[in-house]
């Protein structure tokens, strides 16, 4: 049912420059997408227009140029760096006598190749089905849609109607299954919330180095490659942070310009790892000349999925490719970390990154110095259990003087559990 093409095909790429900034795409990014899909680009047809034409998206002269390039290079597919309407795809296919694919279809195909888990495959299939629902007629242009004559008359569905009905049923089935996955993920999040384990989610433009950073920090072996959309399925690992304890680090799908809305809808369960995070690590490839535009695109997608109000720590990655740049932490006027300069590939600045994450997550931490008499052995045991002791010593009269650091919620719970007024035993305190 899917319009998948085999890897290794010959493709003619089409790129149009528009005057409108919002309609512009990047030709280099298209070439990277095509390479990631395993397709060989044999020619690039480019041009410029004020607005797309209704019939071929491009002008009739440019459409003929594309068709001539297909014949000259014996291409199997034409790939546009833009979104096409179903009628534009049909008209171009009739003219070029080969398969025509737009940017959305290309991204969907890459996603279909990359999906590893059952959930990821379901999400990709749902996005493909929604995209295909408006393009079914193309698959039946070579067949009669209704047949007449003796023995063939009467009520019944055409093949096109049958396909549309089957497609609707399949979409409903996948949506129900993904709803179950979403419930399971929500249960996992609630369990982490009860255990008060903070979640840190990696976000960023595709190929910014998120998976490489994830592997370096967690010492994992998640698939990472120098290609677009190497990661689709979210991966969670537990990490240990100084003064915080356990935290969950989540590696998520990369974003891209004009990410298809069907994909955003299909990957809702995955993107919830981003929506529910306590801190977003926005990984930026600072060696890329377009890092500012890429950063803006990521922030737009975060706004679309309603995750733009979550605290961000920018990770300026790939400093090994830049001259005169060293690992460091940039801070704002209140001395709060806002940027960390690292190289995930070389492991530069990872300690600084972990320190900055700890600082960002420790805003709800409290520090107290307590003086506890020997008679309160239960309280002493509770503090040891909570693993919150920073320093300890004994006074001349045998009292235990201890500096503790813990989350505000843990401190409040300790107050409720204790049979004494803890405030009476505080020597000094320093809240972050």
From TrEMBL:
GO molecular function, one term: metal ion binding
Main location: cytoplasm
Entry's localization field: Cytoplasm
Keyword terms: Cytoplasm, GTP-binding, Magnesium, Metal-binding, Nucleotide-binding
InterPro entries in alphabetical order: EFG_III/V (IPR035647), G_HFLX_dom (IPR030394), GTP-bd (IPR006073), GTP-bd_M (IPR032305), GTPase_HflX (IPR016496), GTPase_HflX_N (IPR025121), GTPase_HflX_N_sf (IPR042108), HflX_C (IPR045498)
Positions annotated to bind Mg(2+): 211, 231
GO cellular component, one term: cytoplasm
Gene3D superfamilies, per database record: 6.10.250.2860, GTPase HflX, N-terminal domain, P-loop containing nucleotide triphosphate hydrolases
PANTHER family: GTP-BINDING PROTEIN 6-RELATED, GTP-BINDING PROTEIN HFLX
Subunit structure: Monomer. Associates with the 50S ribosomal subunit.
The protein's role, per its UniProt record: GTPase that associates with the 50S ribosomal subunit and may have a role during protein synthesis or ribosome biogenesis.
Record protein name field: GTPase HflX
Organism of provenance: Paraglaciecola hydrolytica
Gene transcribed to yield this protein: hflX
């Amino acid at each position: 049912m899917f319009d998948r093409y085999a890897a290794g095909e010959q493709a003619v790429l089409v790129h149009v420059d528009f005057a409108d900034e919002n309609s512009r795409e990047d030709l280099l990014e298209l070439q990277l997408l095509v390479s990631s899909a395993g397709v060989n680009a044999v020619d690039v047809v480019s041009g410029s227009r004020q607005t797309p034409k209704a019939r071929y998206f491009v002008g009739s002269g440019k459409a003929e140029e594309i068709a001539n390039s297909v014949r000259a290079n014996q291409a199997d597919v034409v790939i546009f760096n833009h979104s096409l309407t179903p009628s534009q795809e049909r008209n171009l296919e009739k003219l070029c006598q080969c398969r025509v694919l737009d940017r959305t279809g290309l991204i969907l195909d890459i996603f279909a190749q990359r999906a590893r888990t059952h959930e990821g495959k379901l999400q990709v299939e749902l996005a493909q089905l929604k995209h295909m629902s408006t393009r079914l007629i193309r698959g039946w242009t070579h067949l009669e849609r209704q047949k007449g004559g003796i023995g063939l008359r009467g009520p019944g569905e055409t093949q096109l109607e049958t396909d549309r009905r089957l497609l609707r049923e399949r979409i409903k089935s996948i949506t129900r299954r993904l709803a179950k996955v979403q419930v399971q993920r929500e249960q996992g999040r609630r369990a982490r919330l009860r255990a008060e384990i903070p979640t840190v989610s990696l976000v960023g433009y595709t190929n910014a180095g998120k998976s490489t950073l994830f592997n370096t920090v967690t010492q994992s072996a998640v698939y990472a490659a120098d290609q677009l959309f190497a990661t689709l399925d979210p991966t969670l690992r537990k990490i240990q942070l100084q003064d915080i304890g356990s935290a969950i680090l989540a590696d998520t799908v990369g974003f891209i310009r004009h990410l298809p809305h069907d994909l955003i809808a299909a990957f809702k369960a995955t993107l919830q790892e981003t929506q529910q995070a306590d801190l977003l690590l926005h990984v930026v490839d600072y060696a890329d000349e377009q890092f500012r535009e890429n950063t803006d695109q990521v922030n737009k997608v975060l706004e679309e999925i309603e995750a733009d109000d979550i605290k961000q720590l920018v990770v300026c990655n790939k400093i090994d490719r830049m001259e005169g740049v060293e690992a460091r932490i940039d801070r704002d006027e209140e001395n709060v970390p806002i940027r960390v300069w690292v190289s995930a590939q070389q492991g530069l600045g990872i300690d600084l990154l972990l320190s900055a994450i700890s600082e960002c997550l420790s805003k709800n931490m409290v520090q107290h110095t307590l003086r506890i008499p020997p008679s309160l052995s239960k309280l002493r045991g509770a503090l040891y259990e909570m693993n919150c002791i920073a320093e300890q010593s004994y006074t001349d009269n045998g009292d235990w003087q201890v500096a503790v650091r813990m989350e505000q919620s843990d401190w409040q719970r300790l107050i409720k559990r204790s049979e004494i007024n803890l405030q009476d035993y505080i020597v000094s305190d320093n809240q972050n």
